[in-house]
Amino acid sequence: MDVLEAILGRRSIRRFLDEPLEEGQIEKLLEAARWAPSGGNMQPWRFVVVANGDVKKQLAADSYGQRFVAEAPVVIGVLAVPEESAKRYGDRGRLLYSIQDTAAAVQNVLLAAYGMGLGTCWVGAFDDEAVAKTLACRSGEVPVALIPVGWPAEDGGSSRRGLNEIVRYLE
To answer: pTM (2 decimals)?
Structure first.
């Protein structure tokens, strides 16, 4: 599958089959995350892999009751470490680059998972403090996203605005 096919085909999946992932799949996804672009190559990210059912249920509760979070075989917590970017870039690194970098890592995971036949959903609606506690975040780590991962039990749906609505050309 080429990259454009993955970009155009990937959808947010909120229903998962009750089947475990294959050995090594999570490591491949984490490897994809690790190779995301990063401002100044600071790599201000951390990843927490959750397979424990009770912890996933707590993450679902922390995510305002989004039950599908707990139904995926695995959830990957994506954390930013803003002060790592701030070392080189000050407030811009702290407030922007660390978030951009982790967002790029999330997108890499989503696309790699799709290429492997897996379903994912980028979950950003959650109580920051609750998720930080559930994921046992260390000092300086800030939760940015949760990514439930599993075999899709749906196709997902999506629509996009036309290019004419979102693009301007300056000449």
So the answer is: 0.97
